Amino acid sequence: MDSNQFRDAAASAIDEIVNYYDTIEDRRVVSNVEPGYLKKLLPDAPPQEGESWAEIQKDIESKIMPGLTHWQSPNFMAFFPASSTYPSMLGELYSAAFTAPAFNWICSPAVTELETVVMDWLAKLLNLPDCYLSTTHGGGVIQGSASEAVVTVMVAARDKYLRETTAELSGLELEDAIMHKRSKMVALGSEMAHSSIQKAAQICGVRYRSIPTTRANNFAMTGDAVEKTILECKSQGLEPFFLAATLGTTSTCSVDDFGAIASTVAKHAPPDVPGEIWVHVDAAYAGAALVCPEYQHLTASFQHFHSFEMNMHKWLLTNFDAGCLFVRKRKDLIDALSITPAYLRNEFSESGLVTDYRDWQIPLGRRFRSLKIWFVLRTYGVLGLQAHIRKHVKMGEFFHSLLKSRSDLFEVVTGPSFALTVFNIVPKTQGKEEQDKITKAVYELVNERGEIYITHSVIAGIYVIRVVSANPLAEEKYMKKAFDVLVDTTEELRDGKAS
Ligand code: PLP
Questions:
Q1: The whole model's pTM is what?
Q2: Are residues 294 and 162 in the same domain?
Q3: Same domain membership, residue 447 and residue 308
Q4: Sites of the modification N6-(pyridoxal phosphate)lysine (predicted)?
């Protein structure tokens, strides 16, 4: 493909993409293809002769589209959203054009320097304490996902803990102590924490304990529960070294009690003392709301914590992937992740004047992801981002009020919290089993019909439905449609009314 062919192909692709977005609400939101559908439609091997773009592009609509679940459809209310916007897509386009695995500063200084600038912008926008800024001892780094971020900081926490608690030892004695300690180290997270925390512990080769929550506390992790678990672990000879707190849990968007957690942790493993517990805040989805002053009180304790992560690609108008990880002490990451063979050495890195982000992450190479964040921050501005969040929060309240207006059919379990409402169906005859059964049946039929797409969860043993109103294209009319679909399906299944 030469430059002229690229210009035509790109114009045609962009036309198709714009048309896709303009008509997306008409598509069935969740794909209903059979597993293995695509293999049947494609040849067994690539073509011998190259094909024209026109030939290739045709297959998008006929072969790929049927197998897409349309996350950008306003009828998609499942999981948490995956934002996509035109400015962000332009960032992806330029990033692809400038492709470079820019692991060291000299590999493309703009890649590193723009990342530092936009991550500092973002830290200020989210009201993170100054210790998370690159101008102090901290800084931000873009990762692929919240899961990748938590593995990265857990590795840093593990190595810091081992280094600091064995500092007096050397030789074989040191090796033995490290082996012994590693077998006793335990990472903690609430039972509502995302599964990525447990997965990180699995990858890091440490134990994991989950901390119970209660409905009375709105499924938030409390200081008391943290204390109880720390004491239990210690009484078993285990060494807690990492705690994940959540701002916006996946099932219910609960917010852990950060203030109480900070004081509890300080009591048992004071910060900046060898053996401290590294506290990571997972704000993958709801962290986006921190752009609004009305949520910024939530960061009040963050100067006592060690790291924070939010995904711009969930609720802040940026295409996947844009996981934004901030650490209070960048040295902790670098100490754990920096290995410099001769071929990675260069005068700029040696000068100590530049950042080499390869030392802040697991992979070596990295994409130019700050471009899309920069484009989004500049296109929407702070006021635009705040309006975006507030619009969705308001729609969550609207949806919640609709559910409340039919309390004969729906029981709200939690929310609306950060545009997520969690509810179940009121059964015809009393009983938890009956309630779980009808809730599951309604949930499954709604998704099978594919007019809207929602997700479920099980919390405290209760089967619940989650509806999120944070899709970039969300509007009240779609929330009302979702409500009508839920009413009709419930009346059909529960009361035998034809819809
Ligand atoms: N943390 C929370 C609270 C989440 O809700 C999710 C996913 O929805 C994750 C972490 C994992 O996100 P990622 O896909 O970026 O790893």
A1: 0.96
A2: yes
A3: no
A4: 314
